[in-house]
Amino acid sequence: MTQPVDLISGALLDIGAREAGETVASSDANEAFTVLNMMLDQWSNESMMIPCKQEVIHELTGGTYIYTIGNGGDVNCVFTGSISGTTLTVTAITSGALSVGQTLNGIGITSGTAITSYGTGRGGNGTAAIGTYKLNLSNTFLSGTITSYAVRPLKINSAFVRVVNSITGTLDYPVAVINLEKYELIGIKTLAGPWPRAVYYQPSEPLGVLNYWPNPSQGEMHLFCDTVLNQFATLNDTVTLPQGYEMAIRHNLAVLLMPSYGKSSPAQIEMLTNFAAKGRGLIKRTNMAPVQTVVFDSTLVQNRRNDAGFILHGGFN
Questions:
Q1: Do 159 and 215 belong together in one domain?
Q2: Smaller CB count within 10 Å for the chain: N or C?
Q3: Are strands 131-149 and 115-118 parallel, antiparallel or unpaired?
């Protein structure tokens, strides 16, 4: 675990803006804190800097095919729960659905508190959602009403809809993620259907817009998204960062602060620039997902491999 003030203190030490053991001036800390959050905001535009794909879960309302997502949007959850340290305990859900990545709102809850992982609770709005969840910030909150919302994502990578079935309990159907041009080609956008087959996401500000087709009557949506990195709320937030991020943030912040202090020698500049690039490179290597192999329908390639390896020998034979 670390705090933003420690990352800032280390970055200023690296560029010679403070001596070892010297306390960082509050004015320097506050200015560097702003740069730190701006850097994290910029990193959110690089998909390989994001450690995981966020799964956004939300309930579909019959007859509604357009939903907003973000702070104050339709994709949210109202539930009864309590917080002790970094553990959220959910005892009842009033509306909506829970999922990792949601930000919490409630009287006395620290701004920027978000769900980072499942405990005994597994998200959604059923009985499996009741239980514990891990948070990024420590809080003390006695049992009461809490509202959470899904952060506006940068883009949607894939999706499926979960529907109730009397035989198996639930069924998951893939939902195509389409672009604006394909969405425009749909003639009757309000056409009714049992559940969505496609979604077009408009990443507008401050709320993104989800457009489903056909107009669903039921279902629980699961959207796998690239989302923004959580920014720090205060200098003294105690947070747990993914492996490798602490040093990468320190060195990259040092590089951004160098022009403001001008105390680094050419050798220091080269060393820190290399360290910063290496830190980001290692994170990207870890987060990089392999390219999905192209797959063909089994009826086209009976008794043969159904991937794109056929191109190496000129056909399906």
A1: yes
A2: C
A3: antiparallel
Task: Return the biggest CA–CA distance within the chain.
Answer: 72
Query: Is the separation of the CB atoms in 211 and 203 below 8 Å?
Result: no
Alpha-carbon distance of 77 to 62, in angstroms, equals: 17
The pLDDT tens digits for 156-193 are 999 999 997 655 678 899 999 999 999 999 999 999 99
Residues 90 and 214 in one domain: no
Which domain, by its residues, includes 124? Answer: 76-149
Do 171 and 63 sit in the same domain of this protein?
yes
Nearest to 75 by CA among 55, 89, 91: 55
| pLDDT tens for each residue of 26-64 | 999 999 999 999 999 999 888 889 888 889 999 999 999
* Other beta carbons within 10 Å of 8: 26
CB 110 within 8 A of CB 132: no
Residues 137 and 104 in one domain: yes
Count how many domains the chain has: 3
Name residue, tokens 């800032």.
Answer: 8
